[in-house]
Amino acid sequence: MSANAEKRTYYTLPFLFQFTAGAIAGVSEILCMYPLDVAKTRLMLQVGKGGSDQYKSIVDVFSRIIKEEGASRLYRGILPPIMVEAPKRAIKFASNDTYGPMFQRLFNSDKITQPIAIMTGVSAGITEAVIVATPELVKIRLQAKENAGKYLGTMDCVRKIYAEEGLRAFANGLEATVWRHALWNGGYFGSIFAIRGMLPKAQTKKGELAVNFAAGAIGGTIGTTLNTPSDVVKTRIQNYNPANGPPKYTTFLPGARAIAREEGFRALYKGYVPKVLRLGPGGGILLVVYEYVTTYMRNHMM
């Protein structure tokens, strides 16, 4: 959503420009923040209320991975998200910039309002989820501690999943992924609209960057708080091994109820700290880079 989204009319950048700007923003964010995603996944996959072999904190995750598996393991599984990051982030922002005018026309509004901002974000999130569900599954399998020696790399992981579980396995967790992205995008883009309205109007370029980073970081934190339970369920569904018997979780709401009942409500926020440390500042990075690139495009390429 552009810096002046609340005053925007139906005019937007061409889709190719939106796609390119979103791709640049997404890859920038993931290169900076990926080790936190590995830590988040490890914590989310821990079943139960504790144990001597379980990670105790984000610091414990990092120190044990480096000590037991090597520092390179902090970037294990980065290829699938890198491959999908460009279309994923591009679709996030391009869809948001496309759905906004659509909802404006639908509700006969000459500006983006708070409800339109939320509906736009949710719609963009659903669109994004369909694209990322399968690469997310491959990434989770590569990041999981118990799979450390099972897969040689991304393509080996894809081949083994197909050979052992069939084509349908690549759709595991799709419904929970839709929940995850709809909640995050709705919270992110919806809160950005409100936060920008509350912050002092920037008078300089540096001030505008600061406002965008603050709005994006707060929006990322809100989105993360809303969607972490669906991320926990999604992560467990996608790491399911058929050799362990029937799946324990298949969809978000029943899965969330089961986890809360068996492990306590706090279990739905396992991995929250590394997740919010990534997606809070990461949301700021996303917005700042996207706004910078789209501003450059408007000023120099149109």
TrEMBL record:
Transmembrane domains' residue ranges: 15-36
GO biological process: mitochondrial ADP transmembrane transport; mitochondrial ATP transmembrane transport
Topology within the bilayer: Multi-pass membrane protein
One Pfam assignment: Mito_carr
Localization in the cell: Mitochondrion inner membrane
GO CC list: mitochondrial inner membrane
Main location: mitochondrion
Keywords: Membrane, Mitochondrion, Mitochondrion inner membrane, Repeat, Transmembrane, Transmembrane helix, Transport
Annotated InterPro entries: ADT_euk_type (IPR002113), MCP_dom_sf (IPR023395), MCP_transmembrane (IPR018108), Mito_2-oxodicarb_carrier (IPR051752)
Solcar repeats: 13-102, 112-198, 207-296
Domain of life: Eukaryota
GO terms for MF: ATP:ADP antiporter activity
Family stated for the protein in its record: Belongs to the mitochondrial carrier (TC 2.A.29) family.
Name the record gives this protein: Mitochondrial carrier
Organism listed in the record: Coemansia spiralis
